[in-house]
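User: Predict structure, ligand magnesium ion.
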Amino acid sequence: MSEKEPGDEPSLLSMRGIVKNFGPVQALSGVDFDAPAGQVTALVGDNGAGKSVFVKCIAGIWEPDQGTISWNGEPVHIRTPRDAAALGIATVYQDLALCDNLDIVQNMFLGREILRHRFLDEDAMERAAGATLERLAVTSVRSIRQPVASLSGGQRQAVAVARAVMWNSKLVIMDEPTAALGVAQTAMVLELVERLSAEGLAVIMISHNLNDVFRVADRIAVLRLGEMVASGPVSDFDPQMVVELMATGASERHVPTQAVASGSAPAGTD
Ligand SMILES: Nc1ncnc2c1ncn2[C@@H]1O[C@H](COP(=O)(O)OP(=O)(O)O)[C@@H](O)[C@H]1O
Ligand SMILES: [Mg+2]
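Assistant: Predicted complex:
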């Protein structure tokens, strides 16, 4: 965790009034959210709160029914995953979608192989894959030519992240990245999360684990039943507060703060 003050610059990603309905089900009812560059924003909430639907609105899987999305202060429409990728938004889903029978390099270039004279350029792909893993300080894999099936859970997560960020990403969304991991592997993945933000990327981490959240998050956003009940710098929260906010939508001790890009908020308003 690092100390960063929100400046006057707009957040890399800023969402206002996001509504998403599925027939009569209002999954998101007017959500405001900011993800600044160089910071880890933890998105927390109970099952059914709307976390997955919300990140799918960022990833171009769903288009919101209402609301605005801006990117570096400019309004954008994210209608498809391709739109999201073009902006530099990468999503690492919980199942990771790696191919066990393929090696690390093959997984990282799956569907985007480098060709040279119509043949696979194995050297170029190895170099690029190796450089990305090195940049992310993923040093624990024996060989980038080992099949993904032979990797530990944390290493698999690292490969999925490396694949996501290799293509000039500016925002990485991670859905429960440590849910299936033991202590040591979790530490490795949290280091990776910190490394991404230290490199200037915005990271959105969905997590149920408040230990993880308080270890790496710069900001916390709490969703409950489709509403953003609290969001702000991690220093505004403690774990007990977050539990209360997730469960009831309120906490006696929590003082709501303004969104990161709202500029000078009038003091003393509730
Ligand atoms: N494709 C869908 N069709 C209808 N309802 C959905 C769909 N996806 C999610 N929902 C509903 O939206 C709400 C939020 O779901 P979700 O975002 O998956 O919650 P979370 O990820 O926080 O557990 C839930 O009530 C869920 O049933
Ligand atoms: Mg979910």
